[in-house]
Amino acid sequence: MSNKKHNVKYLKRRDIFGRDYSVLLSSLPTADQYREIDPYAHDLESNYTPLHITLRQNQLKKAFKVYKIWKTEKEYIAHKHGGHILDQKDREGLTPIDMYNIQLHNNIMRYPKMLNYEYPAKSESHIVWEPEAADLPFAKKASILAYPSSLEERTYLKENRGSHILTLGSNTNYQLGTGAKDDRQNLFQVNIDQINGIVYPPTDNKFKSVFISRYHTIVTTKDDEIFVSGNSSRGRLGNGSTEKPLFSFTKLDDDKHSKIVSLASSENHSVLLDDEGTVFTWGWNAYSQLCYSPTNNGGRMMDDKSLDSVCNSTPRRVHFFDNKNVSIVGCSSVHTCVLTSDNVLYSWGLNLGQMGGSKISHVAPDAQYLGESGHIMAKPVTLNLSHLDVEQIVATEFATFVRCKGNTLVVLAEYSMRTFKIALPKAQNFKEPDPFKHFVPRGRPHDIVDIKCSNSYGNNVGVLFSCGTIGLISTKKDSTRMWSKFSNNLPISLYWNPYRTINNCLDFDVGAKGSVILCTYSGEVYRSSGVNKGFDKIHGSKLASGRAVRVSCDSSFDSFAIIKDESNDIIISHKPNEITQNYSHYSPASGNKSVKPESIIYGPYSDLEQPESETRSGKIRSQNISIPVMKYPFDVEFINEHNRNSKQGCHKIMIMGRCIRLLRYLKESGLFSVDDDLLTFKMDNTYDSKRWSILVGGKASAELIDDVISGLLNVLYMVESQIKHQTTRLITTIIEDSLHSAKTNHHFTNLLQLCLDDSDHDLKQLDAYHKPDTIIHLSGDVKVSAHSYILFNRSSYFNSWFSEAWRQTGLDDYYHVELPDITIAAFQPILKYIYGVPFEKTFYKELESYSFMETLNYLLSLLQICDELCIIPLKIYLESVLSKFVNGGTVIPVLLNASQSNASLLLENCMVFIYTHIGILLFKENLSMVDECFDDDIWSRLEVQTNSFKADSTSQQTFSSWYDMTGIDWIDLFKTNIAKFNSHFMSGSYQFEPSFDLTSTSEKRSRRRSSTRRASSSHQNSGHRHSVSKTSRQPSNGSYDNSQFPIELRNPWSSVTSLNSANSSAIEDDISDFIEVVRKPKRKSTVEVARRPSEISPVRAEIKPSEIVWNEETTSNKENLPSLLGKDLKERSKDTSEKTSKITGTFKKTSQKQRKTIVDISSIDSSPKEKKVGWGSSSSRKSSNNSKTKGKPSSQRSSSVGGTSLPSLLDATSQELKPQPKRSKRRGKSTDTDKVKYTEFVSSGNPGGITPYATSTVQPVNEIANVFGDKSGEAVSSLEEQIAALEFEKWFAQESSKVKKKMKSGGNGNTDLSAIYTNVNSMPVLLNDTDVTHSKKKVRGNFKKKESKSLSDLF
């Protein structure tokens, strides 16, 4: 590679497929020039930005680096480049995150079952996959953000996945549960465990539903708990208080109900239904809407202030519905209704017509609500709906909605019942596609799955369809009589129409005025203030992870609540805390095998029987070359008295817990007898000796004695399976208890309690065989005692410390271990593990008073200590616990700690979570942490993790792309030789012409404007060039540089144009290059016109007898008659090849009326009774002077003879003009190389043959040839032109004077026109017409021809 500096032109260069330098750097996995990547660059083929490309290719490190540089250095100028780079969209309208999520959903071919650790490892990944993804229940798939495909899956997702509550908006009545009264512009979030006040152990409880109003919020959970916050007046909270508000979510202490089936709430009261069919109500009871008398004996005649106290502040059972089997409940602020299983609707409260039935006329109204009178129904009113299959009830103050199967809606309003069918809404501009031209899916599901309404009058009813579409039933004005005015076809408007599955609506809520908040399958939340007003996405770091599954809003659309699913459901498998494996190698059954360190380090996770392990690359031999560790020396020896060479060893601490009576006899008398001296045990030395020698004899044979001793030691070391049947009774007598190993665990627990309770006491006072022999010095001069034998066998760290090379006792005969960096709070769980305490009780007490973050920090510090002390089983359990603390705000610090502590299971769990919530990497709070702490190993493992969810590489075929090719320096090739670079993609017989659409979607929509636009607007803007893509993203680094390999881009408005540094006008649109657009029975778009340039032919307009067009030259003197002998005419170019036109402009079709506005025809007198004005009169001149086009006055016409004003041939009345034949559809030609200007004309006639929309160039045209139909357009000799012009002017002056005299003599309009046409007959022939092609239609002027003369005859 040359050391010469590359020309910076490569920054402006694009290859044959429209990729620039930034796109190239983004595509190459090995390129690390992050700062050279323009984040706003895009390719012309897919409109992908660098973030699109890097995320699509799983180059997560590069994507992060590009975003980090933009965030820290370029965000402040983002408004100049198109906004936030995460909002940039590709050709399909997808942002980088949207495209990544769609690709994620499409790539998942298998789902993880759990994370499992084993030694030796069989693969690089610890994920255990589910066997068949197709047969998995949706609950397994939902953890990887799978989308629901049925109503049951939608219900599961909404009711069983909520892990967080998020609130936003107005907090006037503490309804947001933030702990304060301040409104929230940013989302407030609380976890399910935080709201319960329980941090450890983490629960599996989930949020089930949420309801928020202007005064309070009610939340239910899967474990049938109810949490409330807000204003407690009117008893709406149900906590027994009416005066004290709740600032944060508080559990409602009510154990009266069983499992919650349904809960409905209004702004003032609530109704609950449990699985036993029992109904509970609480809250305001001014209208008897609780279905029982108020506890404070309120009455109907109270004032408003007293009515607020008519309530019941705790849930109370409604005995009226006992044994009625209620299935659905609903309520509004003034009434309550329930439906039984036999479809009988019960309603009670203030009847304003929403209960159906007839209106009570013989009794005076009891109360008024919103100006309407009603009767209080203390006892439920029944309505039989047995003929309907009811699915949902929604109650408002003036209407009750009963949703039934088959998209049927029954409305109870105005004391009547009406039934409607609801159709799937369609867009206002919807047009049924032609099934013969377009594939139209006919099976689109459109069953109604939910309806919502918070308007008191029942207006603005939101309807959710199974296809994810939302419709709104509404009228312009709220009215109690609105539902009686509706026809059978309800006025339903299309509110939300998803164009992809990820945008299907999962849940929604509606405000009183028709505002909507919704959440989609992908978890995004949108808000809109009305139909056709657009949706705003709610942004925030708390919504970037997880997905929203429930939404709710108050009736005023000021407060919002969201339930989010951010669960980390991938289980990390762990084994119980077993001590068997750590001591079994001391039993006689082990055969005195050596102890490998892996058995101590990995405990039950080590599988040392397998010499080989499987990996993805095949079979490899396990590199288990560790040196065996020494066993802890025995301090007890059993000697067969009949055969003293038979000796078996043991440890005092193992006998102490199981053979208590044996040791007591040996200590007191030195002898212990079993079964009438069948076996005898006696001390061969003193009891106080450090090493005991016990002789075993008696009447039994030597073989039986050996079997009993071996069986006894197997029991002590927890290998019960090796006991012979004939020795079981004798062994049971010796140990006086069960042979189960649980007794050994219990013994170790007692020893642990001794160490923890007496750690600060004098150890010498303890019994010798219970006495700990080790003192551990911790942080803060804290001392903890322990037993060296247990430490030696349960931790490889202590195993090394107590080895013969390192083991030393102090002056007090105790071992002293220094751990100055570990606190007592962190070491106690480790000590509990070492002594065999179950994992669930290891650090339970230490975390009782900790907060969420304190618990997380404590567990992470403990994880690091376990790694340092090589306590792998406890470490794996900590990984399992920590995985439940992983969420969007903690995953990055947990991942970094896992990487530092070599916690591979937790690390992989965090990577899977980031993989499914990629936006976490781009959190503002995480940017600096990720940038500073993520090393190449973490990035590479994270990028590899993204491919693990696909099928195994051995079962599918993989394809490599051009950026994966090795041996080609793409960057240098792009900089130095773009032609060779392009040849790698297009060469030989595979040549084709790439076609790019350079305009954005919004420009395509705005290109086709209304045809009623004034024609003068084009005339006014003539001479200016406008870019086709003003609002679209421009190339990242200026114009194109394709001098070495030009790109041919097909502009849909022009022919193929070569784009290089000198010519970039092909992407611009010159509005002055117009051609006439002819009205046809079926209108064709301008794109179709541009695709068929060969069909564009010159327009030859017919000569009309009623009007003559005057072509105004902008450079001419507007005070005098434009002469045919002007200087421009003499310098006319004779090159006819320049007449070829390229159609490159946007075309505007204007109507006849619009074209008439270019030339003012106000001089035509429309009144037949007025006197005609003669030539040269003042009124005629005034009319001429006032003639204007849009923003530009028309020039005056004056005669060249005697200074007399020239006559206007348009002075005749418009009513006298003869009907004109249809204009020709042929189009004229224009030259795209000349600067152009518009020609004024009158659209209703074209006698001079001047083409409408034709343009006059800077080079003067042959006026005579244009007027008289010379198609060739060739200029005649200048002398002949001069002679013809002189002869024409002479004739014109003579004939005009004659016509003027006849006009003055009087007569009607017909006479005037006859005089004009008669004199026209004598017009001289200006040119020889042998080469003139005449129009198909004859000219009514009937011009008289003259013989052509030679130059000699003329002179």
Automatic annotation (TrEMBL):
Keywords: Repeat. InterPro entries: BTB/POZ_dom, RCC1/BLIP-II, Reg_chr_condens, Signaling_Regulatory_Domain, SKP1/BTB/POZ_sf. Residues 1029-1045 have a biased composition (Polar residues). Pfam families: BTB, RCC1_2. Residues 1000-1045, 1114-1251, 1336-1355 are annotated as: Disordered. RCC repeats lie at residues 224-276, 277-342. Coiled coil: none annotated. Residues 772-835 form the BTB domain. It comes from the Eukaryota. Residues 1127-1141, 1229-1238, 1344-1355 have a biased composition (Basic and acidic residues). Residues 1174-1205 have a biased composition (Low complexity). PANTHER family: BTK-BINDING PROTEIN-RELATED, INHIBITOR OF BRUTON TYROSINE KINASE. This is BTB domain-containing protein. It comes from Maudiozyma humilis (Sour dough yeast).
